[in-house]
Amino acid sequence: MARRPKGESRQPDKGRPDLTREEVLRFIAENPTRATKRDIAKAFGIKGDMRAALKDILNDLQAEGLLEGGRKSYSTPGARPAIGVLDVRSRDDEGGLLADPVSWNEDELGETPRFRLRQPSSGPAAGVGDRVLAHLDYDADGGPSARVIRVLDRRKALALGVFRSRRGGGGRVEPVERQQPEFMVAADDVKGARDGDLVEVEPHRVHKAGLPTASVVDVLGALGTEKAISAIALHAHGIPHVFPKAVMDEAEKAGAADMDHREDWRALPLVTIDPRDAKDHDDAVHAVPDTDPANPGGHVVTVAIADVSWYVRPGTKLDAEARLRGNSVYFPDRVVPMLPERISNDLCSLREGVDRPAIAVRMVFRSHGGKVSHRFHRIMMRSHAKLAYEDAQAAIDGAPGDVPAELVSTVLRPLWNAYAALSDARRRRQPLELDLPERKLKLRPDGKVDRVIVPERLDAHRLIEEMMIQANVAAAETLENARQALIYRGHDSPSLARLESLRAFLRSLEIPLAKSGALRPSHFNEILAQVRDTEHESLVNEVVLRSQSQAAYTPENIGHFGLNLMRYAHFTSPIRRYADLIVHRALVTALGLGQGGLSRQDEESLEATAEEISKAERRAMAAERDTVDRLIAHHLADHLGDSFDGRITGVTRAGLFVQLPTFGADGFVPMGSLGNDYYHYDETGHMIVGQRTQLGYRLGDAVEVRLVEAIPLAGSMRFQMLSEPRKLPGSTASHHKARGRMKRPGGRSGPPHGRRRRGR
Predict the structure, then answer these.
(1) Residue 228 falls within a domain, yes or no?
(2) Residue 230 placed within a domain
């Protein structure tokens, strides 16, 4: 770089020409987590040539020993570090993670602190025994906390693997994760494991030579069974699935609830309507015509929810474990509950004919479904009937079976009449109506896949769903009116970037999407109605879904876009969701309903709690999806070479994801296997287009594929495309760059060297 002539002064174009050393030092001392050169320049408006003057000030301060660092950020001598490496050691009484710094200079920085960890908003969560990189914060009262940047090292106490026996006794354990080592198991440590069993092992101290050794702790079953494969998902995602003894002891000591601050509603004929195989029942419903002359044709609907807040109190080990888990996790034939069975399936479950504590909301609706009022009560109830969805629907349709006629006329019929009114209101409200059928795996007695079904969607399902939505809205409204802090279930409107991408895609189908004004779910419903029963129906439903934001828990009310509601809070499933338990406690506190309300710690940590349970929800969904993928891959591993009807569910630069609708599982078609053309990726149009033929494949296309590879442990499948590409309208794929490099040495034309081979 050329030097300035001697004597020529720097002339700042903008910024602070009078910046002093003292101001720079003060800023760095007050902002230890954002003291890079860029941060300092931004804070003082330093631009252009003034950056050189700032650099001189920083260099001088370093030379005088008044500043440290400088490679990435600056700090004052003796200042506590802004970023550090921590070992996660334990949990506090509320279930929060506690971590110690790997290195700490007590002579300069004082006593070594123990940091309370906050989990990252995305990526893998940290657990006890892990080593993490974290932002270090220090509260005004000196309480240290840290936010995890990333997990550096996993140090699990137990490991998972496939046991392989050997002659003479003992065996080895093959890992199911890439970074996990292989273990040797002595004959005395096998614990009955047989060749091919999935086992959980406890590693021994690492030896200097040879493979590490371990002892079998638990035999989870033959590889490929549902129990074994779900255990892989639990392990891979770090989902707690074994209750500590202290938690179990606390649950066993719990006794029946008393009548403190409760109303006696045991005579009210509340009923539960759930899946036939449900083990716990956390909601019951009832409806009668409103007798108020001012509300002709109106309905009084009661929704009663299990009073989990009575049993799971803040500060208890039960509460800490429930917060840690965040929610129950559901696999095809296994449930990992948020609460021990003593609580979830016994004391809190609204069993038929048994007294159970509950928090109920009584809601009054007009004949057209508009709500007049609502009020919450803490009650003792008794379920008068336990009904499956199918049985309740059959009874209403005229085939009561084992359902008593009196129950149909006095309980079910008023419920359906109220549902008709609520349905009218729902149609006026116009929530987002996506048609995305859910599939359910049916397993054989050995835990392997028997078949995949799409359960019929009944009015009984919709009735319970709508009444739960109304109860959730009532909870949010009550707490807002009481100015009580709570955790909302928030669903933001689609981002501008996603809307623009959706608009461009719909334009290729000649479907307009309004540009001006705030979009509402009704706008999307109009689009979905346009493509109903057309070849584009599945495609447009999928793309509209992908344009939506992800729902999450938040202490701030951002509304619920998908349901088209101004406020919404989860209240109706406290047995399986920690968010609902927090809302129950908030109602108890706000309405003065007795014991089990929000603690001060609950209120102060609502933001952290919302973040943690949102993460737990995403973790559970990923584990459930992985388990289904592994089961399907295992099921189809014996069908290599068979052809299947599929639908393209993902388009990437590397290839196509194809779902088998019969099974609800995805496989991959690498780009390099698609024939003799060179395909360009059109992100806007969700398609790939051949450069030579101008033919291609698009998201939502029905295709035929051949299964060429299935890896059960990874839950992955690879397909060969059998369907020919087709003419695709409206492609915006850019070819000019490729055309400029298609000429190979020697005059031959073709795709760039190696591109096709890598499948990109």
Answers:
(1) no
(2) no
Q: Measure the CA–CA gap between 303 and 540, rounded to whole angstroms.
A: 36
467 shares its domain with 321: yes
Tokens of 670: 């690498």
The closest alpha carbon to 32, from 85, 62, 72, 59, belongs to: 72
Number of domains present in the structure of the chain: 6
| SS3 of the chain: helix, strand, coil, percent, to 5 | 30, 25, 45
Token pair 């046991």: residue: 163
Nearest of 349, 335, 333 to residue 575 by alpha carbon:
349
Q: Give one word for 511, left, alpha or beta, with left for phi > 0 and alpha for psi -120 to 50.
A: beta
Looking at the fold, whether 354 and 264 belong to one and the same domain comes out as yes
Is residue 632, in this structure, part of any structural domain at all? Answer: no
Q: Which of 432, 423, 257, 445 is nearest to 355 (CA)?
A: 257
Can you tell me the mean pLDDT for 55-80? Answer: 68
pLDDT value of position 33: 56
What is the C-alpha separation between 615 and 336, in angstroms, rounded? 17
Q: Which residue from 199, 190, 189 is spatially nearest to 222, judged by alpha carbons?
A: 199
**The one-letter amino acid at 149:** I
Six-digit token pair at 131?
Answer: 């080593």
* Residues 337 and 204 occupy one common structural domain: no
Residue pair 228/220 in contact by the 8 Å Cβ criterion = yes
Q: What tens digit of pLDDT does each residue of 305-355 get?
A: 999 999 999 999 999 999 999 999 999 878 999 999 999 999 999 999 999
What amino acid occupies position 249? Answer: D
Above 80 in pLDDT, residue 72?
Answer: no
Q: According to the model, what pLDDT value does residue 14 have? A: 45
Whether residue 129 is predicted with pLDDT greater than 80 in this model: the reply is no
Question: In this structure, are 518 and 448 located in the same domain?
Answer: no
Q: What is the pLDDT of residues 273-310, one digit of tens each?
A: 999 988 899 999 999 999 999 999 999 999 999 999 99
CA-to-CA separations, 753 to 655, 688, 739, in angstroms, rounded: 18, 19, 14
Q: Comparing 532 with 205, which gets the higher pLDDT?
A: 532
Same domain, 358 and 463: yes
The residue assigned the tokens 């230890």 is 32
Name the strand (E) or helix (H) holding 28: helix 21-30
Instruction: Report how far residue 656's alpha carbon sits from residue 524's, in angstroms, rounded to the nearest whole number.
Output: 26
- The Cα–Cα gap between 90 and 126 comes to 11
Q: Tell which residue, 164, 166, 167, 165, has the closest CA to residue 175.
A: 164
Residue count of the chain: 760
Q: 442 lies in a domain?
A: yes
**AA letter at 271:** V
Report pLDDT for 135: 78
Examine the domain organization and report whether 310 and 442 are in the same domain: yes
Q: Could you tell me the residue range of the domain that residue 34 belongs to?
A: 21-75
Domain CATH for 68? 1.10.10
Cβ–Cβ < 8 Å for 36, 73: yes
DSSP 408: I
**Which value, to the nearest 10 degrees, does the dihedral of the CA atoms of residues 592, 597, 600, 603 take?**
-100
**What tokens does 475 get?**
């909870």
Of 43, 75, 107, the residue that ends a domain is 75
Q: What is the pLDDT of residues 493-514, one digit of tens each?
A: 998 888 888 888 888 778 888 7
Q: Are residues 701 and 589 in the same domain?
A: no
pLDDT at 55: 81
Q: 482 pLDDT exceeds 60?
A: yes
Element housing 546 (H / E): helix 537-546
Are residues 375 and 410 part of one domain? yes
Q: What is the CATH number of the domain that holds 673?
A: 2.40.50.140
Residue 435: what pLDDT?
Answer: 78
Q: What angle do CA 305, 311, 312 make, to 5 degrees?
A: 100
63-67, 331-335, 568-572: least confident range: 63-67
Tokens found for residue 731: 């492609």
Domain boundary among 598, 623, 648: 623
Task: Specify the DSSP element, H or E, that contains 83.
Answer: strand 83-91
Per-residue confidence (pLDDT) for residue 9, from 0 to 100: 37
